[in-house]
């Protein structure tokens, strides 16, 4: 492999990794707060891509209106799911919440089939994302750096919200101790809602960027990215936002590099995620950034 | 200020409070004493809306608190320092204090009130930007207290401030409470295992036993009462 090709692969790995990271944040935030693995999160990714698709194709919106609008609408759907399927079950045993999350996932996938149709649709990316950029001998299309930069901006916004704003402070408190957060005069339901909104917005952005990178969308398109992002969240230490980002990048880069260095193994590409996960968890059960945490009761 | 009538609480099948009644008048320190499992924490949790009573009434200045969630009770002017402090260990001392003021309207006064808490507990100022998890037990107790004060409560409820503190430190904490009450007229409902120390600062006290109020009276009288001295103060 030449150096130029290495850079090309690295760019690919980072762009894939930033998508995993965007999606992983939603898993990790919800887990951090409710100790719930939100199985429906991958399907939010799919919804984001479809809403953006219909915005452009059916409502003829320019991409710079359709994409942000899709993110906002999908964040709203995330909030509705929390309100309807998770909040009423919060005081029951955790298993009920998990079951509800699985049910929501199936519901979204089946609704997707009925409403959008099961056949894949071609997602057309805006023309400026299709420009070939030369890196010496190799080249990448302009959407690759666009994905990386967009994700980086979203990460910066998220980190700002979580670490520098009042509501972010409440989110961090909530992830430690819901009951005591309520004793601070904080409406914990509202903070939980806000967290779902943020997580779903990032997943929707991830879905749109995913569709830009792999421009075929179908109602099950969220399953694989969802699973990989979940692995990324666990790799990073579930509950930890920085960890989710690191886990996402690590997974994306390693996945691409293994295929690049060992082309014969490319058929096993998806299995690497699991191998990395198992190895890491054997040596560091809490993930990269995870701390040992007592289960909440 | 606070009036509780005939409060009953069940945890599943466990009848934890059997119709207790108590009164917290303005600007007084009221102590709620009793052995482990008597139902003291349950009473406070009920006031804060964490636990729902099966029967009874809780009035704050004549208005019922029943059916409100914790954050709404806080907005009505009640603050609680929970048992075991429960500071947010992942947040800095400063952030913990700011959180205490989360629901307040005059956010511009918050800065100034944090200074006031620092004045009360200088140790917190030295540790302001340290995660609260790195504080010692006593420092965490001061932080929990300061955090509760940040909401400017009309009624401050404290669940076992001396839990896990050295006798000397718990003396200091209780003295701070007494000063606060004397200087600002802060109304306080105090739970304590250390009955003797609590009686020394309280105006009036209730003694609980397995879910009921067993005895009540002016703190000075209870401290002299033979039966109280034998059963609760361990003096023969
Ligand atoms: N969440 C709960 N579920 C079931 N039972 C509970 C629960 N919380 C408290 N209890 C029971 O209710 C009774 C009163 O408990 P509470 O915590 O109010 O006692 P306490 O007076 O605060 O005791 P301590 O001094 O040990 O803190 C106890 O018998 C306890 O076991
Ligand atoms: Mg207790």
Plain-language structure description:
The complex is a heterodimer of chains A (297) and B (236). Chain A has helices at residues 3-34, 41-57, 63-86, 94-116, 143-164, 166-176, 178-183, 188-213, 223-236, 241-261, 269-283; strands spanning 121-122, 132-135, 138-141, 216-217. With 297 residues, chain A is mainly alpha-helical. Chain A has a single domain, classed as ABC transporter involved in vitamin B12 uptake, BtuC (Orthogonal Bundle). A two-stranded antiparallel sheet of chain A has the order 1-4. In chain A, strands 2-3 form a two-stranded antiparallel ribbon. In chain A, helix 5 packs antiparallel against helix 8. The longest helix of chain A is centred in the N-terminal third of the chain and has 32 residues, at 3-34. Chain A is globular, with a radius of gyration of 19 Å. The mean pLDDT of chain A is 92. Chain B contains ten helices and ten strands. Chain B has 236 residues and is α/β, with parallel strands linked by helices. The longest helix of chain B is centred in the C-terminal third of the chain and has 18 residues, at 167-184. Chain B has a six-stranded mixed β-sheet, with helices on both faces. The mean pLDDT of chain B is 91. Chain B folds into two domains: 2-77 and 153-231, Rossmann fold (3-Layer(aba) Sandwich), CATH 3.40.50; 90-144, no CATH class. Chain B has helices at 40-47, 70-75, 93-100, 110-120, 122-126, 137-149, 167-184, 195-201, 219-224, 226-231, and strands at 2-11, 14-24, 29-34, 55-60, 63-64, 78-81, 155-159, 187-192, 204-209, 212-218. The A-B interface holds A 166, 169-170, 172-173, 175-177, 179-188 and B 48, 50, 69-71, 74-75, 79-80, 82, 86, 88-91, 95, 98-100, 102-104, 147, 151. The structure holds adenosine-5'-triphosphate and magnesium ion (MG). Adenosine-5'-triphosphate binds next to strand 2 and helix 1 of chain B.
């Amino acid at each position: 492999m030449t150096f130029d090709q290495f850079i090309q692969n690295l760019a690919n790995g980072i762009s894939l990794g930033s998508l995993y990271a965007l999606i992983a944040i939603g898993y990790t935030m919800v887990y951090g707060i409710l100790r719930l693995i939100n199985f429906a999160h991958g399907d939010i990714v799919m919804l984001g891509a479809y809403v953006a698709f219909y915005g452009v194709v059916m409502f003829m919106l320019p991409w710079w209106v359709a994409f942000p609008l899709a993110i906002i609408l999908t964040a709203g759907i995330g909030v509705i799911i929390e309100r309807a399927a998770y909040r009423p079950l919060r005081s029951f045993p955790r298993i009920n919440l998990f079951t509800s999350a699985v049910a929501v996932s199936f519901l979204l996938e089946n609704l997707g089939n009925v409403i959008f149709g099961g056949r894949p649709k071609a997602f057309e990316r805006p023309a400026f994302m299709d420009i070939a950029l030369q890196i010496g001998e190799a080249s990448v299309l302009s959407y690759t750096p666009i994905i990386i930069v967009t994700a980086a901006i979203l990460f910066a916004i998220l980190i700002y919200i979580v670490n520098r704003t009042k509501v972010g402070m409440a989110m961090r408190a909530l992830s430690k101790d819901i009951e005591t957060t309520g004793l601070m005069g904080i409406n914990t339901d509202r903070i939980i809602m806000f967290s779902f909104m943020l997580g779903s917005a990032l997943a929707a952005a991830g879905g749109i960027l995913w569709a830009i990178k792999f421009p075929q969308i179908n109602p099950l398109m969220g399953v694989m990215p969802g699973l990989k992002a979940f692995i990324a969240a666990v790799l990073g230490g579930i509950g930890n936002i920085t960890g989710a980002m690191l886990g996402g990048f690590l997974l994306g880069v390693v996945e691409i590099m293994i295929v690049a260095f060992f082309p014969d193994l490319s058929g096993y590409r998806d299995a690497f995620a699991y191998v990395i996960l198992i190895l890491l968890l054997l040596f560091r059960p809490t993930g990269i950034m995870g701390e040992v945490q007592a289960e909440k009761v | 200020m606070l009036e509780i009538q005939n409060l009953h609480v069940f945890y599943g099948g466990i009848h934890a409070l059997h119709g207790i009644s108590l009164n917290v008048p303005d600007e007084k320190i009221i102590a709620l004493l009793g052995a482990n499992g008597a139902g003291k924490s349950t009473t406070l949790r009920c006031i804060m809306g964490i636990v729902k009573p099966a029967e009874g009434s809780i009035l704050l200045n004549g208005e019922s608190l029943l059916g409100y969630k914790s954050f709404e009770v806080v907005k009505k002017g009640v603050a609680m320092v929970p048992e075991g402090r429960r500071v947010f260990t992942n947040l800095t001392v400063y952030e913990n204090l700011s959180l205490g003021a989360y629901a307040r309207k005059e956010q511009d006064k918050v800065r100034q009130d944090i200074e006031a808490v620092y004045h009360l507990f200088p140790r917190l100022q030295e540790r302001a930007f340290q995660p609260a998890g790195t504080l010692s037990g006593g420092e965490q107790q001061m932080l929990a207290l300061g955090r509760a004060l940040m909401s400017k409560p009309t009624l401050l409820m404290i669940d076992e401030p001396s839990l896990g503190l050295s006798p000397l430190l718990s003396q200091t904490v209780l003295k701070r409470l007494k000063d606060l009450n004397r200087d600002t007229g802060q109304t306080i409902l105090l739970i304590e295992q250390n009955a003797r120390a609590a009686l020394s600062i309280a105006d009036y006290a209730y003694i609980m036993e397995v879910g009921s109020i067993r005895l009540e009276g002016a703190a000075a009288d209870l401290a002299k009462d033979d039966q109280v001295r034998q059963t609760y103060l361990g003096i023969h």
